[in-house]
Design goal:
- There is one protein chain.
- Helix 4 packs antiparallel against helix 5, helix 4 (79-95) packs across helix 11 and helix 12 (258-271) packs across helix 13 (276-303).
- With 357 residues, this protein is mainly α.
- Helices cover 74% and strands 2% of the residues.
- It has a two-stranded antiparallel sheet with strand order 1-4. It has a two-stranded antiparallel sheet with strand order 2-3.
């Protein structure tokens, strides 16, 4: 069928280790990229602005967090603070005349510095203790951002972001903002795809499985944890800047509070730890499904003639949404990415269901 490998003969390690060794996957990716390029001309402006663009931005952030959770195996409940550091740094830099491209990079670099501070906690503790320490750092960063006027302008203040400028040209159209966000998401995705098959990726997986055993075979967990936290923080910082310049247009401390960190962790878990395509699925599930649930419940109640109050209509979608998360994790605890992998593995041997890959 689609994933059949008949007639595919790899004659070198480079061919066997290609990003997409099966032709169907290569053509499917090209089709998705082609649709992504023409999406502003096919989809409505509302769909691009309210759904596609935020989904792409949050997916890039989830990919960065997955590097820590999925590859390095380190809990991180302070990723929203990392994104906030990148957002505030880039906005301040752009407001002070720094070119937009360099302002975004500065935001990523500043986030990396803070990310290394988070990493030192990972070098001392593990598991739930690490989760608690990163959560404590999230609260500290929340307080610092909201109470230092030089950063946020004060408690409950809103800092207006200057317009996005690429190579000196202001980007004001919805299509232009979409293409910039799409380019960043593609860059992060390609980076993660290559990381998975690189020496660094294999070292991170070794640290995740058992850092003591990794040290025995020569993998320095101290060094690779620092690299993982710094790299993940850079992706998170730039993604936070993209979120402000490409979507919100203004930055406040509430946009990067602790509840955002919890939602990011939920996106990673629902999508699947260490799964790249699962990061896309998990982000869509957590970010986009609640709104669709509200519309679906309202439509269903109207169709069945149920006279439900406004309060009931407000709570039922949350109940259905929570139940759907539990259902997904009950069906496949390793997330939506693993569900896709199960279907893919089945099609690889279809119709010979007795075969084992």
């Amino acid at each position: 069928m689609f994933y059949r490998q008949a007639g595919i003969f790899h004659t070198s390690y480079a061919q066997d280790r290609a990003l997409f060794p099966i032709p169907f996957e290569k053509w499917a990716i090209l089709a998705v990229l082609a649709f992504a390029l023409v999406a502003p001309y096919v989809l409505s402006s509302l769909a691009i602005t309210s759904y596609v663009r935020p989904w792409l931005i949050w997916t890039s952030a989830v990919l960065g967090l997955n590097l820590i959770l999925g590859w390095a195996g380190q809990f991180h409940f302070g990723y929203a603070a990392i994104m906030g550091i990148g957002a505030y740094t880039s906005v301040h830099a752009a407001r002070n005349g720094v070119p937009w491209e360099f302002a975004v990079i500065l935001g990523g670099l500043m986030a990396s510095v803070i990310g290394v501070v988070f990493a030192f906690a990972a070098l001392r503790v593990k598991g739930l203790y690490l989760a608690l320490s990163t959560l404590a750092m999230q609260f500290v960063m929340d307080w610092v951002i909201s109470h230092v006027p030089a950063i946020s302008g004060g408690v409950s203040a809103t800092l207006q972001a200057p317009p996005m400028k690429l190579l000196g040209q202001a980007i004001t159209s919805e299509a232009g903002l979409y293409y910039v966000v799409l380019g960043w998401t593609i860059f992060v995705t390609v980076f993660m795809l290559n990381l998975r098959r690189s020496a660094l990726g294999r070292a991170l997986v070794a640290v995740r499985e058992k850092d003591y055993a990794a040290a025995v075979i020569g993998v320095q967990s101290f060094y690779y944890k620092l690299v993982a936290f710094a790299t993940s923080a850079f992706i998170g910082g730039v993604s936070g800047a993209m979120l402000i310049f490409g979507f919100y247009r203004a930055v406040t401390a509430e946009q990067f509070a602790v509840n955002v960190s919890i939602e990011l962790v939920a996106m990673v878990i629902v999508g699947g730890l260490g799964s790249i395509i699962g990061s896309f699925f998990g982000t869509a599930f957590i970010l986009l499904l609640p709104g669709q649930m509200n519309a679906l419940v309202a439509w269903g109640s109207k169709l069945m003639g149920l006279n439900l109050g406004a309060e009931t209509l407000a709570h039922i979608p949350h109940m259905v949404y929570g139940a759907s998360i539990i259902l997904v994790l009950l069906i496949e605890p390793m997330g939506l990415g693993k569900l896709y992998g199960n279907v893919r593995n089945y099609l690889l041997v279809w119709p010979f269901g007795y075969a084992r890959k």
